[in-house]
Structures are given as C-alpha cells and as structure tokens.
Amino acid sequence: MLLCIDVGNTQTALALYPRPETTEDPDDEAGGADRATARWSARIRTERRATADELALTVRGMLGPLLAEVDGVAALSTVPALLRELRGMCERHFPGVEQVLVEPGVRTGVPLLVDNPKEVGADRVVQALAAYERVGGPCVVVVFGTSTTVDAVSASGEFLGGAIAAGVAVSAEALSTRAAGLRPVELVAPRSALGRSTVESMQVGLVLGAAAMVDGLVTRLADDIASRDGQGRRPVAVVASGGLAPVVAPECSTVTHQIPDLTLQGLRAVFVRVRAAARAREERRRR
C-alpha cells in the first residue's frame, strides 16, 4: 500500500492507496491518480513544532495494523519548518520503503512555466498534475484551504501560474478580530445574496464573495489559457478541492468537478511518475 501524506498549514491529510505498479498497467489508468480510491484516510491538525519522531508516533499510531501493509510513501509539506522533520520521519521510521518527498528539485513531470519554479508550492504542483490527469486537458484548479489558490494548467499539462488569495476561514477570522462589531460566524452558504442580518451579511460576503472572486479569476485564466494555446475560447474544466470546497464550490458557476482528495491523488501520481522514470533509467543502464 502507498501511504500519502499532505502536511498543510492548518491540517495534515493522510491516505492509503493501492500500490500502483506502472503507468502502463491496464487496470491503473493514467497511473490510477484519477481513479484510485483510498482504502483508509484521516485528517489531523498540523502541529508546526512537531519533531520527526512525534510525526512518526502520530502516523504509526493512527495506521495501527495497517502499518504492516505500507511499502511506499509519498509526502509533501507546505510548512517549511516541517519539511526537514517530514524527511527525517520518512528516512528513520520507514527504512527500506520506496519514498518520494515532493520538494524543489524533484521531477514531477509537470513543466512549471513561471518566473521562479522553486517558488511554486509542492501542493500546487501535485494538484495541477492530479487535475490534469483527471480531466485530460486544459483546466483551472481551485483549492479552498488556508489560502484560496486558482491555478491554470495548459492543454499539454503545463503549470502556467495563477492567483493566491486569503482563504475564506482566514478572511472570516480577520473580520471578527479587526472589526469590533462583528463576531465569528459559521461558514455556510446564505439563503440569498440579500443578507437580512449581520451574520447572514457576513456569510454573503465571505462565501458568495469568494465564489464570485473564483468565477472572475477562472474567466480570466481561461482566456489566458486560450491565448497561450493560440486557439479561440473553448470550455475549460474547473476542478475544486480543499476543506471549504463543499461550502463554496456549489456557489461557483464555473466549477465542473469536485475532488476532495486532489492533493493526495497528486502525490500518488507523482510517485508513479518518479518510479517509472527510475525504472527507465535502470533499463537504459542495463542496455
């Protein structure tokens, strides 16, 4: 089984997927990234000061008897302070297990057509890969997490760049903290755009406002994708994910797909590609 670990700013997601053999496996289309179903999954709070041993204790404890089935690990961390600890956990507590830690310098197979590829978060790269393999063409990837990211992927699977904005929960916290007359509210879709109370007005601004922003950015990015491809405007798939996607995505007119475990599936896809590349190099050396 392949253990995928996504250490995010707020939460850490884990999942066990059937071990993909090769990208050419007839029962594992496109490496299985878009078809794989997790056998087990969990989500915990990210502890930014956790050590490698503490991370291992948590992961191994949650897996329980499933730990014996782990024969591959794919992981990433968007928290710089935890990247070294995550690497240490994999090396010390999963010895002899094939590992792929997605970080700058790791070849994911996704061309990064941006000014500084090393600045692009590993999560955005694997999300772009998973979305592209899912829809099989140009797409816009929207992730509603601690930040809201809206990224463009070309018809050839290239990461073209995108936008980063404050996440819905971050915006809600800022409102209640900085405005004396406003208090924390539940992040749910309002009855309509006409907020008839302070609470509902905040929900309109936070949820529907985020949806309107995403729709506007998707339209602009779709135009940029079409311009780059040298073709006229054509439909572009819009893939949504992230913790607040179930709340905001239904209010977006442009979202066409929702994939809750997009980052984890992207990690699985990268693991497939890295292993396939390693096998190809080994075969060339043998020849």
UniProtKB/TrEMBL annotation:
| Subunit relationships | Homodimer.
Top-level lineage group = Bacteria
Reaction(s) this enzyme catalyzes, per UniProt: (R)-pantothenate + ATP = (R)-4'-phosphopantothenate + ADP + H(+)
- Compartments, record wording: Cytoplasm
Question: Which CDD domains does the entry mention?
Answer: ASKHA_NBD_PanK-III
Its gene name is: coaX
Alphabetic keyword roster: ATP-binding, Coenzyme A biosynthesis, Cytoplasm, Kinase, Nucleotide-binding, Potassium, Transferase
Pathway where it operates? Cofactor biosynthesis; coenzyme A biosynthesis; CoA from (R)-pantothenate: step 1/5
Q: Where are the transmembrane segments?
A: none
Tell me the leader sequence span: none
Q: How is the cofactor bound?
A: A monovalent cation. Ammonium or potassium.
Region annotated Disordered, chain positions: 19-38
State the needed cofactors, names only. Answer: K(+); NH4(+)
Residues reported to bind substrate: 121-124, 198
Please state what the protein is called: Type III pantothenate kinase
